[in-house]
Design goal:
It comes from Deinococcus aluminii. By secondary structure, the chain is mostly helical. The protein contains five helices and two strands, in the order H-E-H-H-H-H-E. A two-stranded parallel ribbon has the order 1-2.
Length: 125
Amino acid sequence: MFPSERRWTLLLAGALLVVAGLTLGPAFFPAAHAPTVMRVDLPPPAQVQAAMPEYPTTASVQPLISGRVNLNSASLEQLEALPKVGPSLAARIVAGRPYRSLADLDRVKGVGPSTLQALTPLVTF
């Protein structure tokens, strides 16, 4: 092989590698894309208009709760007075403080959908 033929062969091989790299490069190293931001109006939040429950009182018995119970500051006795809350669940609620929403309360073991539905109008955070 003559020196000029060898030079052209190397040049052709180099050009072939450059073309292959430009062709296959995006497949191996894709370009990062910025996320698209869409402006969509959200529907208004549903308003919960739950009436406050009335607790019966007598001359000798006053209810432990009047109005809403703050889960972050209520005593064990006040928590036990809530429906579907016994001594062990009240202790777990106290151990899981602080609470900011019903989602935080839902993480407590023993609190399920029916308990959340019963406690929603009775508790605050």
